[in-house]
Structures are given as structure tokens and as C-alpha cells.
Design brief:
heterodimer; A: 230 residues; alpha/beta; six-stranded mixed beta sheet; 9 helices; 10 strands; 37% helix; B: 253 residues; mainly alpha; two-stranded antiparallel ribbon; 10 helices; 2 strands; 4% strand
Amino acid sequence: MLMVKDLTVAYPDGKVAVEGVGFTLRPGETAALIGANGAGKTTLFLAIVGVLPKKSGSVFAGGVLLRKNTLRALRAKVGLVFQNPDDQLFSTSVYEDIAFGPRRFGYSAEETDARVEEALGQLGIGHLRDRSPLKLSDGEKRLCAIAAVLAHKPEILLFDEPTAFLDPRARRSLTGVFASLPQIKLIATHDLAFVEATCSRVLLLQEGKLVADRGMDLLGDTAALEAAGL
Amino acid sequence: MASRVRELRALETLAAGRTAIHRLHPFAKMLTALVFIVLTASYGRYDFLRLAPYLFYPFVMMAVAELPYKLILTRLAAALPFCLFAGLSNVIFDRGAAFAVGGVTVSLGVLSLATILIKAYLCVMSALLLVATTPFPELMAQLRRLRVPLSIVLVFETAYRYVGVVLEEARSMTTAYKLRGGGKKALLMRHMGAFVGQLLLRGFDRARRVHAAMRCRGYSLHRPPPARHPFAPADALFTAAVCIPAAVLRFVW
């Protein structure tokens, strides 16, 4: 379960980026986090995994309460797939990149190898195993970035603009991948068609505040979407 | 600039190989390189003939590790000119006669220059072989396991990642500049300040995102990942097979 309660995040200059956000996602649930550019989607994600410090509120993910001394345990439970795969893929081969997480979380060589192979197989990218991440297409990079996060078997997946840079074919392929992932998924995106294809719930963020938390009918509420700058 | 990025990536790609040398424990390769460098550097200034047997070691290693000679030798060539200039002063100041060949006297300074070049070749090759057969993160993790001060490891890690990040940003900015540069191939001096400032800001921003992605996947400076496998008999055998003959050559032969 992912439980975010009254979460407020402020930048060092004092500007509040996320204010009093609260929601709960239950096992198997897939929700979309939508909002205009600068609404605070990425900031919220970074605060959930403890990369950005929270000003107040709490995050409870996979049985771990976000605190300074639980960061490692929490990051093992929550996987964040960044908007730009180039920020996430920095190793010499796809294998090495996917193995980065399991190694850092202290798994043995055999367990790491097994987890990498499983992640590659799950996303159908075994053929990319020894390729350099730099030489992949955007769609392939995206799948590698997801595999890199899946390898340490998080219970919750946060996706930041997963369809950015993708052509329609890669986007369709990603829709299938999302349907096959059993984890709790929270997807920050502007791609409303992708939301329709993958999610069952929509959270609408406006200027750092959660202004709506509804079913898919929210996508048809033009007034609410326009008011939020979409 | 693009070629510098390619060279960095090329060494990284080589390090990801899967030969027997690549599979060795990083400590075995690190210790071997260190011993080799110390032994060869400890020879006297005119001992270039005694260094000759060591010349084969880099080539044997390159063959076993399936490293491309051209790339490694190109990297080596970049370091040698500095040693050449350092050694030239010996040719000028150390004019004592060493021996004569066919009536031509070879000075001690020439012997000294040859020794410096051979030592430089052996030391640089040893370091290049280490880097080209061991992924950088494994090297850094090994340094941390050896209790090398964290601040030193952090400088290495940051510089290594940051150089690549800055070069990539510089490449994309240069491309954008050229496309709107009205046919000018080079960066104009009056744009240099803004260009470099932007480059630093963008590089910093990108480095921060990469660092965040690493932290999300368990990276912590204070907690090195365990080695891929423990130090095995094969690692000890390799270390002994290189270090013992090298030491015998140095102290017995």
C-alpha cells in the first residue's frame, strides 16, 4: 500500500511546491497523476522516495514509514522511473545498468543475475542485454529504465511521463507492459489516452495541491481539467 | 569534443567485456597493476635493457582480455609526449659517454631518455589495462572496501561521471550553436562566457538528476556494494603469476 498524508514539500528558497497532498493506493491499483507543467508531479514523486525532503506530512510505502533512517528500506519498496531515461541509464551495458539496483541493495551475484534476467524477460528485452544503453532507441531506453527499477522488485512503481519521447508503436507496446505489471502504479503524465488505457483512477494536481481524486470520469470533466491548466 | 566522449565510452565498453581477465576480482587486478608499476618504476635511470622483458606483459594482457591494440595504444600515445619532453632535458644535461656503437657515442642522457619512455609506457599501459578490464564502479567499490578515504573516492566518482555529463551537454549545445551560427564553425569569443556559464549550469542540473536516480536505486557513498564474487583461488593465481615473475626479474635477474 502507498499512503501519502498531508504531504508538503518546499524548495530551499521557501517556495512550496507540493501542499497538503494526501491519497492512498491499494495493492494492484493503477492511478494517474495529471496536472499542468510545474504542477508538482515530479516533486511529489521525488518527495515520496525521499530524494527531496518533506516539510510536513508522511509517506507510508510497502510497510515502511519515510524517515531519514528508513530511506534505504523505502527505496527498496518504491521504484521511480524517471522522465528522461538518459538520467537513469548510466552504465556501460544494459545488463550492468539493470544490475546496479540489486547490487546496491546487497543481493548476491547469483541473485542479481537472476533478477536481471527476470526483468529482461518480463519486458521482452533479453536481446538488449549486452548493448550499450546509449545506443538504444527511445522506446528501448524506456523499457530498460523500467527493467532497471523492476530488478529490485519494488512493490510500488512511480512513472514520470512514461510516454514522453515515444512513437505510437512504442507507446502501444508500453501499454501492454503496464497491464502485465502487478505492482501498485502511479503514473504522472499528460497523455490522457494513455491514462484511459492503463489506469482506473485519476489524481489531479494543480499548483501543488490535489484538487481531484476520482474515477476515470474525471477525464471527461473538461471544466475541471481546464481549470487545472490542461 | 565528440571524439573525447567516444573515447570515454569506448573504455567503458571495453571494461564491460566478459573475458577471463574481466572476470577477475578487482582487487587482484588493482594489486597486480600497483606491484607492476612500483617494480618497473624502481629501476635505475640507465636500466632500459633490464626493463625489456616487461614489454611483453601489456601485449599478453591485451590479447587475453581481447582488447583492441589500436585504441589502447592511441590512449598511450597521448601520455608519452609529456615524458618525452621530461626526458629530453637529460639528453641535454647528462652528456657522459655510456658506450659507442660503430664509432657513434651514445650518451648517458640518451639511455636515461629511453628508460623514462619505457617506464612511462609500462606504467601507463598497466593503468590503462586496469581501467579497460574493470568497470569503473567496481574499481571505486574496491577502493572503498580497502578503506581509501571517502572524500578521495567521491572526487574520483564525481569527476568520472561529471566529465561525461559535461561533454554530452557541451556536444548538444555546440550542435545547437552551429545550426544557428550562420555558417560559423567555431564558437565566437564574445559568446564564450555565456556558453561556458550555461554549460556549467546545465551540467550541474543533469548531474543532480543522475545522482537522484542513483540514490533511488540504493546508491550510498557510505555503503559500497559487495564484490561480484569473493577473492577466489584463480584471482590469487593470476596475482602470483604476474607479480612473482615481475619481482624475480627486478631483484634476481
